[in-house]
Specification:
115 residues; mainly alpha; 5 helices
């Protein structure tokens, strides 16, 4: 039978994983092999969802900017093209915020870009 080494480190590693499994249901929270599997799967989903969150928010900003631009008689693509031609460096997050909360500022930006 092989000799088991370094019980302290392996115990700490298991303890860390089981601490992450706190709040899970059934054996997922206290059985080492089951908890390990579900924690790893959960961390994978968390990594993927952080990337998806960025994509989702960008899509939301574009939708808001397009809606506000159409209220003023232009489109999102014309607005962005105009901003690039005039070298106005403003990101979509700020544009969407202006469109929602400060429509007068958005209108000034839009007039500058499209004119």
């Amino acid at each position: 039978m092989p000799r088991a080494k370094n019980k302290v480190a392996s115990h700490q590693r298991k303890k860390k994983f089981l601490k992450l499994a706190k709040g899970y249901w059934g054996r997922r929270k206290n059985v080492w092999t089951v908890a390990k599997h579900h924690i790893e799967k959960g961390l994978l989903h968390a990594y993927k969802s952080r990337k998806l969150k960025k994509r989702t928010f960008r899509s939301l900003w574009i939708t808001r900017i397009n809606a506000a631009a159409r209220l003023h008689g232009t489109t999102y693509s014309k607005l962005i093209s105009g901003l690039k031609c005039k070298n106005i460096l403003i990101n979509r997050k700020l544009l969407a915020d202006f469109a929602m909360n400060q429509p007068e500022v958005f209108e000034k930006i839009l007039n500058e870009a499209v004119s």
